[in-house]
Design goal:
The chain is an alpha/beta fold and 246 residues long. It is 36% helix and 20% strand. Helix 1 links the parallel strand 1 and strand 2.
């Protein structure tokens, strides 16, 4: 699955809800770790949107146990509808041979890194992104924002990595970082994530519902002066020198 422009993923643990994402999302992120009978769901899937398979362990903010987690993800990668899988950087480092097996199934790799307590400094984030790029096709980094300075760090890192030719997805987690989900595409972020409304599981802190995030991103792209931006958005635009109407 070639991702050159910004791609919005609708996150869900129920593939029968795929029709709810059409017209807003480009892909489905299927959260296998919180899904009921995930392999059965994949075998019965007849939706239009391609799938990113994610099977996040408890160590990385998900619900899956480590036992059999990668085997289940490998099984998912054999379905034609699954075009990408998410592998944590920590796993990629220790089991690089597994990545080759995933590629043999014809899927691309998102190599992800999550920090749920803070945002590392710029140099550290860039090193993480560059290392992830060595293993996969998309480097995803998500870090908790404790203040607006953290969100500025994330946006700057996304921009720098993009200028270096890396396909990166950058996310500031938490309420303070929510607005970065709207403006990160403007700095080069290739992937955004948003849960379907009323989904049965909780995902990353600070996520916006799919239809809200999709609408806000389109409004920013079109320069819509009527959009009511969330707290922190206008201030961050101003501090970054980005010309966003109030």
């Amino acid at each position: 699955m070639e991702i050159d422009d910004f791609t919005l993923a609708a996150t869900t643990n129920d593939l029968t809800r795929e029709p709810d994402a059409r017209g807003e999302a480009d892909v489905i992120e299927f959260r296998m770790d919180s899904a009921e009978n995930p392999i059965k769901q994949l075998s019965e899937y007849d939706g239009e949107l391609p799938i990113i398979a994610t099977n996040r362990s408890r160590w990385f903010g998900g619900e899956a146990t480590d036992r059999g987690r990668l085997d289940q993800l490998m099984a998912a990668s054999q379905f034609d509808a699954v075009e990408m899988v998410d592998i944590e950087l920590e796993i990629a480092r220790g089991t690089e041979w597994v990545l080759d097996e995933f590629r043999e199934n014809g899927v691309d790799l998102i190599i992800s890194f999550h920090e749920f307590d803070e945002t590392p400094d710029k140099d550290t984030l860039l090193k993480i992104i560059e290392e992830s790029d060595k293993y996969g096709d998309i480097s995803k980094v998500a870090a908790y924002a404790n203040n607006l300075s953290d969100t500025l760090t994330m946006l700057e890192v996304i921009n720098t990595a993009t200028e270096r030719g890396i396909k990166v997805a950058g996310i500031s987690m938490g309420e303070t970082g929510s607005h970065t989900r709207v403006i990160a595409p403007s700095y080069g972020s290739k992937l955004g994530y948003a849960p379907l409304e009323s989904d049965a599981s909780e995902y990353a802190p600070g996520q916006l519902p799919l239809h809200e995030l999709s609408s806000l991103i389109k409004s920013v792209e079109e320069g819509n002066e009527d959009v009511e931006l969330m707290d922190g958005l206008e201030e961050t635009f101003a501090r970054m020198g980005f010309n966003q109407p109030s």
